Fold:
Amino acid sequence: MLGMGSIEMAMAYVLSIVAALGCLVYGLIHWNDKGITMDKTQKGRRV
Amino acid sequence: MIEKLVGMLIYLGIVFYLGYKGYKQTSSSQDYLLAGREMNAFVMALSYGATFISTSAIIGFGGVAALFGFPLLWLTFLNIFVGIFIAMVFLGKRTRVMGLALDAHTFPEFLGKRYNSSFVQKASALIIFLFIPLYAAAVLIGISRMLEVSFMSLGISYHTWLVLVTILVTLYVITGGLKAVMYTDAFQGSIMALMMFILIVYTYSKLGGIIPAHQALTDMAQLVPAKLKAGGLIGWTQGAKFGTPIWLVIYTTIIYGVGIGVLAQPQLALRYMTVPSDRELNRAVAVGGVFILLMTGVAFIVGALSNVIFYKSFGKISIAMAKGNVDKIIPLYIEKIMPPWYAGLFLVGMFAAAMSTLSSQYHVGGTSLGRDIVEGLKKDPRTSFKTSRIGVFLTVAAALLWAWILPGSVIARATAFFFGLCAASFLPIYLLGLYWKKITPWGAKVSLVGGFFCSMFWLLFIHLKEAKAIGLCKWLTGQVTLVAHAPKGSLLWLLQWIDPNVVALPVSFLLAVGVSLLTQPDLQTTKKAFGFLE
Structure:
């Protein structure tokens, strides 16, 4: 697979790329999600 | 030569402009320690990535990939999945909010306030302050050696380079604080990304594409040196035989030790507290994942494939080309295989990688001493600024001293050492502190001390590489390690290749949980810490 000598190595190669793409997709989906932020009174609130 | 000099001067000009920008925007200790908690996502992501990746990851571990091959890509996977995704989504978001609730400005202060314990804060800071100069020294040695070779005709000695690089980095860390560090990191990260992108495209195209390149390396399995075969390596794309010394080194030290150790790095955890909301962390996940793939992913792939290119061009595999010195493989590949213009870019890129890591190491070491040890929990924000600067100065001096006396081949070992020590000492109390309300101050104290000493014991008396180099075990017992006498190939004998963290991290976790179940939690502090999370 992918010219590699073992499935394990091919998996490491593919999973590295998939993990990076996964991060990219996660970041794009949650691009504007601010979560808990602090207002001026230092009280937590969800946005 | 002229290209290298001009490239370096332009690069330094931009770095100092950004350092000056950070300096102009720094007026309070919150600015100095946490970049005012207002960093944008792109700067935060590249700063995190550029701090994460030093010359060690590219030259040190890239060379190791030339030796052991593609199994190193499991480390890339962990770097991205654990070091970026898990770190930012599951640790970063909580650290940011809890850091605000506790009004923490440094990593030791965060731990100290989470457990309402001056001991936890000071002990964490002491571990960081004592050991981060060693890690910084390794980075300093790496870049100074590279500059010495690259500008040989200028006749500047290695020790002069040590001093020059130290002055350059110190100037903008002492004056500009974390803002200067992060702005310059982001610029340096961009250079590194461009450099690695060119490297992977050039290497694959030279070998006729992705699959033909891998296939060519697969077909070279019979060329694996006899010593590596005896240690358990089957081939560069085949991996190592389960349970052999090489398998243990690859999977316990390199992949598990470094891959998991990143979660408790104080200079990285600090960055979660520099952003104003989760939005910046979410965006940093997108940028960081791709950035790390470009860094360690490319370094390990090119490192492994360098065997094919060297063999085709010179009839020798990489380690033979480098005359046995793993640290020389990547520089040699750049010099012999890549076009001449690329060598200049690579030098600037490596300088960027070293400077961005060094600056953060100096900053975190300095603030540990100034903010956490000297001032403790009851601090005056006006003095924090000054003492942190003095702390940075002392960290720089300690790193320079270490770099002066240490040998040149300690880069990867010092990195793994620091990552391991941080994981065993801090990871359980950091992770449980974020998620488990029942963890008690006593649980944290015992875990911190137990994890640290367990890790140190394993390094000094069991793990062959460090125990042999330091020699304390031999001096006390007459044997290189406590298990050196065990029958060759037995489980006891194999312990010498098992990373300290395989033992110290679970011990530290068990201590944290066990002691917490037997002692009383500090309900008021726990309520305060989780105040904004409920």
Chain B has one domain: 2-463+498-529. Residues 421 and 455 of chain B are 6 Å apart (CA to CA).
